[in-house]
Design goal:
Blueprint: H1 2-12, H2 14-46, H3 53-102, H4 106-110, H5 113-155, H6 157-204, H7 206-211, H8 215-261, H9 273-314, H10 327-330, E1 336-346, E2 349-360, E3 364-368, H11 375-382, E4 390-395, E5 398-399, E6 412-415, H12 426-431, H13 439-449, H14 452-457, H15 473-485, E7 491-495, H16 503-516, E8 521-525, E9 537-542, E10 545-550, H17 552-556, H18 559-571
Helix pairs in contact: 1-3, 2-3, 2-5, 2-9, 3-5, 5-6, 5-9, 6-8, 6-9, 8-9, 13-15, 15-16
Length: 572
């Protein structure tokens, strides 16, 4: 998929890529010509009997012109690469965003936020170096090396052969040291990560450190990590400091050897002074592309891991194709939600096993059970976000997995344990920028939950910019209910919405829910058994199975629940 995105970007920007190829060709030629001009300048003017100043200025201008031209075209190359790289990055991240919108819901359970963020940011930036600067620079440097070898053969066959022998030697030493430096740098980064983690843990556990008098342990740990980090830094500095002088010594030795061989008294190679000057220029220019070649090879190697991770992301399974359904094809006056032989597993771990339930009418159904029995997973299956391992969930006979995502908000209203605000106005926080929800819908929802007067008391009313200080925790939960009922859905899903509330605030939320529930089916997850008094049916889940389906009266008289209900009522 990454290659496909690049080819599409290439097609859309074909003219710019042609300009880039021309620019690269000019850079390569321009880097080789000045040394040749230097040879002619010395041999045709300084060593010639004829002191024609026109010859001198011609070669000087050509030498300077090609040098400046190479710099200018290198500038244009950077501009083109910056533009084309930005285009490719934008196109790739756009395709990744489209993928994120259609990826199967299990992806979100199997991957942490940081992993996906790293793919979108770090891996895409790394891939960008492959298709732009990495490969382009590698090609330029390789072409320069080949060009220098060719020009050395033009000057003298023996110089050409010597250059061919020198290149593997220089490249071998360069690659060896780059590998040593890279390993040292990776070790240093690892130690920096450990140091950062240790400091974060110190801040996070500051209270425990103080209470249990663990300051000495914290300081000793910090010193140990600091020593390891120092050693890692020293390794990087040592390897880097040895490499540069070594290359300079090799370069100087080659230059001295060339000068000795070109000595007119022994005339070993039959070189003119101009040829010697040109050879020295080529030798000097040979080291830079070889050094860069090693860096670029490492960069491409590193980026290939990003290439692999992004392709793995694109290979994640997509949601199934949805049916062409309208709201009126699905909902009725009295709706039924059926669990038909429903099973679900995260890998080898079975969460739900052969669940069969039928919830119908504008009634309230409560799901209870210990943490980890699959209550929240059940809701994600009801919404069609997760794909059942076996079986299905149907609304009025229609599989929820076949319902288009764009109309689900009119079917399900979901209220979480905590309100999740977005950047924008109060109205946008209720409507989630959905054009189907009008201001009158938001005001009606706010009135039902008892927040209308408060919102209208703000200077800008619904258009007030939302921030966390505008509402208390209880009011945020009411706002969450308003968001859920604003599109007038027929089914409300409540996921332990009173879990983090005090008894007074909880009473206010429950009262608002009573109003919001009218004319709707309510499916709720709750840990407070006493709040199931208003439920029509209570579904007790144990180890992924339905243990029992009870009425409030049956549950109150059941010895398994009686003590917990009594304790909750005493605490309230």
């Amino acid at each position: 998929m990454v290659k496909k995105v690049f080819l599409e970007t290439f097609r859309k920007n074909l003219i710019f890529y042609i300009l880039l190829f021309i620019t690269i060709a000019v850079i390569i030629v321009s880097s080789l010509v000045p040394a040749k001009m230097l040879e002619h300048l010395i041999d045709d003017y300084f060593d010639a009997d004829v002191k024609d100043k026109a010859i001198m200025w011609r070669y000087i201008l050509l030498y300077v012109g090609f040098t400046i031209g190479a710099s200018l075209f290198d500038f244009f190359k950077r501009l083109l690469l910056l533009y084309l790289g930005s285009q490719f990055t934008k196109d790739l991240r756009y395709q990744m965003a489209l993928k994120l919108a259609r990826v199967e819901g299990i992806y979100y359970s199997n991957n942490e936020t940081g992993i996906t963020s790293s793919r979108f940011i770090n891996d895409v930036d790394a891939i960008n170096t492959i298709f732009t600067d990495g490969i382009v620079s590698l090609v330029i440097d390789l072409a320069k090396i080949i060009g220098i070898v060719f020009m050395m053969f033009v000057l003298n066959v023996w110089l050409g052969l010597a250059t061919i022998v020198l290149i593997p030697l220089i490249m071998g030493i360069t690659m060896l040291f780059k590998k040593i430096i890279f390993r040292a740098q990776m070790n240093q980064r690892k130690m920096i990560g450990i140091m950062n983690n240790h400091i974060s843990e110190t801040f996070f556990n500051e209270r425990m450190i103080k209470i249990y008098a663990k300051e000495d342990y914290m300081i000793n740990s910090n010193n140990n990590y600091n020593d390891l980090n120092y050693k890692a830094q020293k390794s990087v500095a040592f390897a880097d400091s040895v490499f540069s002088p070594l290359i300079q010594v090799i370069k100087a030795s080659i230059i001295v050897g060339l000068v000795l061989l070109a000595n007119p008294h022994n005339d070993a190679l039959g070189l003119t002074m101009g040829m010697v000057a040109a050879s020295l220029e080529y030798i000097k220019n040979l080291f830079m592309p070889i050094d860069d070649f090693g860096k670029e090879f490492q960069t491409i190697q590193k980026a290939m891991s990003g290439f692999k991770r992004v392709n793995e992301y694109f290979n994640e399974p997509d949601e199934n194709e949805k049916l062409d359904l309208k709201l009126e094809d699905i909902l009725k006056e009295s709706n039924t939600v059926e669990f038909r032989n429903l099973s679900f597993a995260y890998g080898e771990k079975v969460i739900l096993d052969d669940i069969n339930i039928s919830c119908s009418g504008n009634k309230k159904y409560s799901f209870i059970g210990r943490t980890g029995v699959g209550k929240t997973t059940t809701f994600r299956l009801i919404e069609g976000i997760l794909k059942p391992t076996m079986g299905r969930i149907c609304i009025n006979g229609i599989n929820v997995r076949d319902i288009p995502n764009e109309i689900k908000f009119k079917i399900f209203g979901y209220v979480d344990q905590k309100f999740k605000g977005i950047k924008g106005t109060v109205f946008e926080n209720i409507s989630i920028r959905n054009e189907d929800i009008k201001e009158e819908d938001a005001l009606k929802a706010l009135e039902i939950v008892g927040l209308k007067n408060k919102v209208l008391s703000f200077a800008h009313g619904l258009e007030t910019v939302y921030n966390d200080t505008l509402f208390s925790n209880g009011e945020k939960q009411l706002l969450s209910i308003a968001r859920a009922i604003a599109p007038n859905p027929k089914i409300l899903l409540l996921d332990e919405i009173t879990a983090n509330l005090d008894s007074i605030t909880m009473e206010r939320v429950i009262k608002a829910l009573g109003e919001a529930s009218k004319g709707r089916m309510i499916l709720e997850i709750t840990h407070r058994l006493s709040s199931t008094n208003t439920s029509d049916k209570i579904i007790y889940l144990v180890d992924g199975h339905i243990d029992s389906i009870l009425t409030p009266e049956e549950m109150r008289n059941d010895e398994r629940f009686k003590n917990q209900i009594d304790l909750e009522e005493i605490n309230e």
